[in-house]
Design brief:
Elements: H1 14-26, E1 36-38, E2 47-48, E3 54-58, E4 74-75, H2 76-81, E5 92-101, E6 107-112, E7 118-123, E8 126-130, E9 147-152, E10 157-165, E11 179-182, H3 183-186, H4 188-192, H5 195-227, H6 230-254, H7 271-289, H8 292-295, H9 297-323, H10 327-355, H11 360-383, H12 394-463, H13 469-513, H14 516-536, E12 542-543, H15 544-561, E13 566-573, E14 582-583, H16 589-600, E15 607-615, E16 621-627, H17 631-642, H18 649-664, E17 669-678, E18 681-691
Parallel strand pairs: 1-5, 13-15
Antiparallel strand pairs: 2-11, 3-4, 3-5, 5-10, 6-9, 6-11, 7-8, 7-10, 12-14, 15-16, 16-18, 17-18
Helix pairs in contact: 5-6, 5-12, 6-7, 7-9, 9-10, 11-12, 12-13, 13-14, 13-18, 14-15, 15-16
Length: 707
């Protein structure tokens, strides 16, 4: 028995097969060596017939068998001595021998040829295929790639010819011998060890293994399609590589065709690259699962650099091995990479254990189980000389470890989904409670206002007898104005808790994700913003400059929280002094908040938020808030999917405040919301706020740009 290679090879062209078929059917040219004569002896040992085999070696691979002159053939020992094992893929080896049955009985012998990726044997008009890359179902003997049945009639002289083709070199296991052995003795040891039963048990385990990981892969991939969360994408890619790797082992170890066309066993040269690639996707999954970019940024950068180096090694290995044919050097490269990868992986796991990150224990247990299974498989591979039991198959321990690891990680992903859903529901309930409190407060104030208005109207009716009609109407108008002002005050009192509630949620999230220094800076900026809001909330109107300053503080906080999501530009070009233009407090912030949370944060790119203060031809100031997020239509769809029963209060309150402000101040503010299109595709939202300022003072041009 010889070591088995499992790498891709080349196949014969149709004209070569046809010509060799004709050759074998019509007989073989006269040999320069004598035929192998069989006398029917009952020997159990195999017979070395190499001295009866003639060989022709072709380095081009395109010569026709019939065109090979007899004098080109030479004894196999002399021919094989001229071959450089490291250049085997460059050779096509043609062999021929003649077997003579000297008995009056029919004999069944097994011809064993040297190991090769593709073997074609021609005998008695039949074409038989073998080799490591052949389909198991198409061989004479499923478990023996290099064995062919030779059926000899009494006194028959049977010429046999064939071709050996190699896909890679054999550095230590270049077989050069041809053997004959009676069929009843050929596989005696194989049957004694119940080799077929072992392989079918492995096939059964592998089938269950493949079905399991295929199911988990489909679940994770569909979840990624729905959520676009890279966590599920990286785990899907990890499982996909494991599936592909397992298919290669399934055909080459279990000797069962995965597809009717075969071929997975020809991809054995991909095992080493796939083994490296799977480590990269495994790290990307763990990085997203534990949010290492936030919780352990230095470790994340360090490991990310190593993973990129791994992919460079994969490219180098493919160039060295399959492309240039230096498979021994390729083997050394991959062996060195795996040794080097073990050390940082161990340090990486220790760092996770010491950090005590949420879900870190699940990652540690799953990874340690996978490492243990791989080590058991490696030890068995290096120490076992014969596999006579199903439990001595090294690969089953890797498969079992992967199943356990998948179970742990699936449990962890499910737990993370549950925790995220619970946090979302808790935030929703808190928001609903706050809104209910505000609604009760507004209802109470409205009731009091209505009672007061009713009383005032009654008083006005009694006084109408003494006052003239014009004066009575004037007082009624004044009361309506007071009512509008009181309702505006109620809406403003409702707006402040809504904004503070959202800001506190932002602080909570930012502190959990950032370090002490970043959190302190964030709290300082938040305190400045709160001081500005509380100071402005005392007034029914503030200057547009104060409103802009408050808005810039708010945007700064959001940029600290989401530095990767958007860029901010503020642009002012106006001759008017912003100090002289009065607007209700917190009138711009809700539109900016809406642009960030419902537009920019859902985009798959770093967006742009732009706020411009301009002056139009009517001496009115125009504030334009524009984003290049996902647009109102897509935002509405996402909102409907996430919070079907929740209606945003910030925009509604702002709209009501503007309407009441316009009642009191003769339509001083106008708001227009439009969609932004680029190449007929919705790419964002523009809010145009026009403020009438009839008594605005002229000022020099002022431009600024804040990033």
């Amino acid at each position: 028995m010889f070591a088995k290679g499992k790498n891709i090879g080349t196949v014969l062209s149709y004209w070569e097969i046809g010509l060799l078929f004709i050759l074998s059917f019509g007989g073989v040219a006269q040999a320069q060596v004598g035929p192998s004569e069989l006398f029917g002896q009952d020997e159990g040992e195999s017979i070395d017939v190499s001295e009866h085999v003639e060989i022709y070696i072709d380095s081009l691979g395109d010569i026709k068998f019939l065109d090979i002159p007899d004098e080109y053939f030479m004894p196999s020992q002399d021919a094989f001595a001229k071959i450089n094992p490291k250049k085997l893929p460059k050779y096509t080896i043609y062999f021929r021998l003649t077997i003579v049955n000297k008995t009056t009985d029919s004999l069944k012998y097994v011809l064993q040829v040297p190991w090769a990726e593709m073997v074609t044997v021609y005998s008695k008009g039949q074409t038989k295929y073998g080799g490591n890359h052949s389909k198991p179902d198409g061989r004479d003997y499923r478990f023996m790639e290099n064995s062919f049945l030779i059926d000899l009639l009494p006194k028959e002289v049977q010429p046999i010819s064939g071709i050996l083709k190699y896909a890679r070199f054999r550095e230590n296991h270049f077989a050069k011998k041809f053997f004959l052995q009676k069929e009843e003795f050929a596989f005696k040891d194989l049957y004694k060890s119940d080799y077929a039963a072992i392989n079918y048990k492995f096939a059964l385990l592998s089938t269950g293994f493949l079905f399991s990981i295929c199911f988990v892969f489909l679940f994770m991939f569909l979840h990624y399609v729905q959520t676009r969360d890279k966590l599920y994408l990286y785990y899907s890619l990890y499982l996909l590589v494991v599936i592909f790797y397992s298919f290669i082992n399934y055909e080459s170890v279990a000797y069962i065709n995965v597809s009717p066309f075969g071929g997975f066993n020809r991809l054995g040269y991909l095992k080493n690259p796939l083994g490296i690639i799977v480590n990269g996707f495994y790290f990307y999954f763990i990085s997203n699962f534990l949010d290492l970019k936030v919780s352990m940024p230095r470790v994340h950068r360090w490991m990310n650099t190593l993973v990129n180096a791994l992919y460079v090694y994969v490219i180098i290995g493919i160039i060295i091995g399959p492309v240039l044919g230096h498979y021994y050097l390729e083997k050394m490269v991959y062996f060195g990479v795996r040794i080097l990868w073990f050390v940082p992986s161990l340090i990486f796991l220790i760092a996770i254990w010491r950090k005590q990150i949420k879900y870190g224990r699940i990652v540690l247990i799953g990874t340690l189980v996978l490492i243990f299974g791989s080590l058991v498989s490696l030890v068995l591979t290096l120490t076992l000389k014969e596999i006579d039991s199903f439990w001595k198959l090294p690969i089953i321990y890797t498969q079992i470890a992967i199943l356990v690891e998948i179970a742990f990680f699936s449990l962890g992903v499910g737990r993370k989904i549950r925790d995220n859903e619970m946090e979302r529901l808790t935030a929703k309930e808190e928001l609903i409670d706050q809104l209910e409190t505000n609604s009760k407060l507004q209802t109470k104030i409205n009731t009091q206002l209505k009672e007061k208005v009713k009383w005032q109207e009654s008083l006005a009716e009694r006084q109408a007898l003494e006052l003239d009609k014009e004066k009575a109407l004037s007082e009624s108008s004044e009361l309506q104005k007071q009512l509008a002002q009181m309702e505006l005050l109620a809406l403003r009192s409702q707006m402040n808790p809504h904004f503070i509630f959202n800001s506190l949620n932002s602080i909570k999230s930012y502190i959990l994700r950032s370090g002490p220094l970043e959190a302190a800076e964030y709290l300082t900026s938040f305190s400045n913003l709160m001081r500005s809001i509380l100071q402005n909330s005392k007034n029914t109107q503030i200057s547009l400059k104060d409103e802009i300053d408050t808005l810039l503080l708010y945007v700064k906080l959001e940029q600290m929280r989401f530095p990767e999501k958007f860029k901010f530009i503020f642009f002012q070009k106006s001759r008017m002094s912003l100090d002289s233009v009065m607007v209700p407090p917190l009138i711009l912030q809700p539109y900016v908040e809406n642009a960030i949370w419902h537009g920019l944060l859902h985009a798959n790119k770093k967006g742009l938020l732009k706020v411009e203060v301009l002056e139009n031809e009517n001496d009115c100031l125009v504030v334009i808030i524009e984003d290049d997020g996902i647009g109102r239509e897509q935002a509405a769809k996402l909102k409907a999917q996430s919070l079907k029963n929740y209606k945003s209060m910030g925009m509604g309150i702002t709209k009501s405040r503007i309407e009441l402000h316009n009642q009191i101040n003769a339509k001083g503010i106008k708001v227009e919301v439009t969609d932004v299109f680029k190449d007929r595709k919705m790419t964002g939202t523009r809010v145009k706020i026009t403020v009438k300022c009839p008594f605005a003072q002229k000022n020099k041009n002022d431009e600024s740009d804040i990033n």
